[in-house]
Amino acid sequence: MELQDYVRTLRRNWLIIATLALVGLIGGGVASIVTRPVYTAETQLFVATQSSGSVQDLQMGNTFIQARVSSYVKTATTPTVLQPVIDTLGLNETPQQLASRVSASSDLKTVLITLTVDDESPVQAAAIAQAVANSLIKAVDSLEMPKGGGVSPVRVSVVTPATAPVAPSAPNPKINLTLGLIIGLALGVAAALLRTTLDTRVRTERDLKDSTQAPVLGAIAFDPDASKGPLVSETSGHSPRAESFRQLRTNLQFAHVSHKSKTLLVTSSLSGEGKSTTAINLAIAMAQSGQAVALVDADLRRPMVATYLGLESRAGLTTALIGQAEVQDLMQPWGPNELHVLTSGRIPPNPSELLGSTEMQELINKLEKAFDCVVIDAPPLLPVTDAAVLAQQVGGVVLVVGCQSVKKPQLDKAIATLQLVEADILGVVLNRLPAKGPDAYSYTYYGYGNSPETVRSPAKITTKTIIQSNSAPTEEDFEDILRGNSTRASRRA
After folding, report:
1. Which residue pairs, CB below 8 angstroms and at least 24 apart, start in 484-487?
2. Which range, of 66-70, 121-125, 317-321, 456-460, averages the lowest pLDDT?
């Protein structure tokens, strides 16, 4: 992971990090409240020699004392010193227990010994500290006394008597709160990294690199209003969503430039990734550019094209495949441009067999002769084999990837399925990218003014289908489409 990936991970999981940091902060505060206060009393001892000879004798004595001070520090926590303290103050504990609350230290090159005692009572802490100091003085005098009798060469005296502390030494609320915050932040960052490592959902274009080398043809940002108006014709012509599909249309022209086939298959790994709306809006964008476009709903499991466009669905693709009607009689015009739609028809019991039949290939060939482009909305790849069967009969496949909807292993399996049938993957469309946040997708395009482009409403369909009326489109109507294509081709030439 690069630095920007770590930053994106932290931004993506900021709520977890903030929550755990807050929990750590609260934990530090609770620990400060529930912990019983401890008071620390302190006293200092000065160690010197008894001799008062020459300067040289004093220097030698000082060196001797400095060497002995470290031994006195360790002696302060021994039963020899602490047992008399327990007996004097009537403490109900052993020398080992008392030693855990007593500490002695000395600075280098000094003859000062500092004794500290911790206790829940400030008065008791001071009393124990003073008693330990007095007991240490007696112990040193006894230990240093010559065997033949006489005076000990070492003199230990109290220079700072112990006093009852005013404030407790522990707990320290500032330290506890700071430590709790640091621990909470550390746990939050660790949880964020672990969650990112275990989360295999596809979120950005960077996540696609491990699965496929196919180019990203376009990126469609998530629009909360898309569920109410999924078609780009229902929004402003300069909206980011409309501009995204125009960019997708342009990129597809370059990606499909070397293909003789005019048919594009739009599919996805799983259902719910937005393949149907992508196919419909792509067909609308192509028709808006002046092309004659045929949109075919080949999702014979859960057809949605007729529902989105408000068309008749009882007669369509399956009707043509079983020979009940000609395809030209089943094409329904939609909108002010030359967009003709072949809905799914009735759902058959054998969709895969129908889509892989020679009749389907002949139907695709007939549509390619009549239209500039054919867009097929196919079922998802993983639940059924329909899309894999169709992918062998078309010029190219566009794979729609719903951000945060599909996982990398699922995407890998879908791409492997297409590669197994030697399908030509033109590219990937990232759908439902977040418009805000760390994974946001930014749009940069030129506008032509502040006022939105006037959107023409879809033309009302006046041609009845063969189910509704006997006045279905005739062979002459279909030939008019062919002649219209030839006229447009001559104008482009």
Report:
1. 484/292, 484/338, 485/292, 485/370, 485/371, 485/372
2. 456-460
What residues have CB less than 8 Å from 303, skipping those under 6 apart? 297, 313, 343, 344, 347
Dihedral pair phi/psi, residue 9, rounded to 5°: -65, -40
Give CA–CA dist 139/96, Å, rounded: 17
Mind listing the domains of the chain with CATH numbers? 3-35+171-198 (no CATH), 39-160 (3.30.70.1130), 205-443+459-492 (3.40.50.300)
Distant-in-sequence, close-in-space partners of 297: CB < 8 Å, separation ≥ 6: 303, 304, 305, 306, 316, 317, 341, 342, 343, 344, 377
Q: Which amino acid is at 213?
A: Q
Predicted confidence (pLDDT) at residue 403 exceeds the cutoff of 50: yes
Quote the strand ranges of 201-283, DSSP E. 216-221, 263-268
Per-residue confidence band for 440, with pLDDT thresholds at 50, 70 and 90: low
Q: Within 13 Å, how many C-alpha atoms sit on residue 225's CB side?
A: 9
What phi and psi values does residue 129 have, to the nearest 5 degrees? -60, -45
- Long-range CB pairs of 441-449, under 8 A, 24+ apart, other chains included: 441/219, 441/221, 443/221, 443/240, 443/243, 443/244, 445/238, 445/240, 445/243, 445/247, 447/238, 448/238
Rounded distance between C-alpha atoms, residue 172 and residue 179, angstroms: 11
The pLDDT-based confidence of 447 (bands split at 50, 70, 90) is: very low
Query: Do the beta carbons of residue 241 and residue 259 sit within 8 Å?
Result: no
Rounded Cα distance, 430 and 209, in Å: 13
Q: State how far the Cα of 352 lies from the Cα of 321, in Å rounded to an integer.
A: 12
Cβ atoms of 300 and 384 within 8 Å: the answer is no
CA distance 71 to 65: 10
| 110, 97 contact by CB (below 8 A) | no
